[in-house]
Amino acid sequence: MSNESKFGIGSFFLLFSVLSIIACVGFLYKIHKGIVLNPRCIEVSAESEKSILADRATWNVNFDRTGSNQTELNKLLLSDRNVVQKFFETKGIEKEDMEFSFFIREDYQETKKANKTVYRAGYNLVIKSKDVEKILALRDNLSGLYEKGIVLSNNHIDFSCSANEEVRNQLANEAAVKAYAKAKNLARALHVKVRRIHKIYDPNCEVEGMNNKFYMARSLMAVNSADGVSGGRDNPQPVPKRKMKVFLRMDVEIK
After folding, report:
1. Which are the contacts of 62, defined by CB distance < 8 A and separation ≥ 6?
2. What is the DSSP string of 170-196?
3. What is the pLDDT of residue 41?
4. What is the pLDDT of residues 162-212, one digit of tens each?
5. Closest by alpha carbon to 164, among 206, 195, 134?
6. What number of other Cβ atoms are within 10 A of residue 119's Cβ?
7. Which residues are CB-neighbours of 56 under 8 A, at least 6 positions away?
8. Among 123, 116, 124, which residue's Cα sits nearest to residue 67?
9. What's the CA gap between 121 and 118, in Å, rounded?
């Protein structure tokens, strides 16, 4: 009985060893044929870029007055608001594209006799437009308001592009085509053949430009000049643009 048991255990280990050898040989064969989980690949990368013009502008300004009588101040401000709204409407800005919000602040002034309350009140105005060129031209020509004693302050424009996502996808596709072409050229130089794309990594996107500081500086020069018009009105500011770059990396399987 004991001899039969020893024979059975010995046979089991012999069979296990044979199967292990077969498995190892098969695995080495797969490696030789290049069909393992991680095949032979070459890594390539490429980039694509494009300049995008701004197609949205959000213009933020405000105007205010200071006085000791709040009631009179409110009347003056309401009149100023009507003047500002009419001015922009005559320049082609739709009423629904203008948003006014009222603000008031109480302050104190020291005098020789006694301190007195002073009110500072005004309106914040936000203009949203798809016509960026019109907004840039208007901001550098506010003489009509200046002549009426209304000066717009905190003059600031935010520019944006509505096609960012569409352009990003387009550039990613272009970068992928460039990367694959690079892989084919490299494979040809190595005397191997391209089999297929093994993996495409998430593309990286960078956006440069559309700095608003330059535009704001020129506009403030216009508002604070004698006639409310910038000296460079015959040389209008160009529509701001951004440069978008997409970097893409991929692994291409070779054989």
Report:
1. 103, 122, 123, 124, 125, 152, 153, 154
2. HHHHHHHHHHHHHHHHHHHHTT--EEE
3. 92
4. 888 889 999 999 999 999 999 999 999 989 999 999 999 999 988 876 544
5. 206
6. 19
7. 128, 129, 130, 132, 159, 160, 161, 162
8. 116
9. 10
94 pLDDT higher than 90: yes
CA dihedral 214, 218, 220, 223 (to 10 degrees): -160
pLDDT band, residue 123 (cuts 50/70/90): very high
Residue 27 CA from chain centroid, whole number: 50
Tokens at residue 240, please?
Answer: 């701001």
Q: Distance between terminal CA atoms of the chain?
A: 57
Ranges 122-126, 132-136, 232-236: which has the least confidence = 232-236
The DSSP result for 16-55, as a single string, is HHHHHHHHHHHHHHHHHHT-SSS--EEEEEEEEEEEEE--
Q: What is the pLDDT of residue 13?
A: 55
CA distance 81 to 152: 11
Domain ranges of the chain: 56-162+222-236
Q: Which CATH superfamily is domain 56-162+222-236 in?
A: Protein of unknown function (DUF541), domain 2 (3.30.70.2970)
- Band the pLDDT of 15: cuts 50, 70, 90: low
Q: What is the C-alpha to C-alpha distance for residues 133 and 108, in angstroms, rounded to an integer?
A: 42
pLDDT digits over 30-46, tens only?
444 444 446 889 999 99
Q: Which residues contact 241 (CB under 8 A, 6 or more apart)?
A: 51, 52, 53, 54, 209, 210
Residues in the chain: 255
Predicted TM-score (pTM) of the model is: 0.60
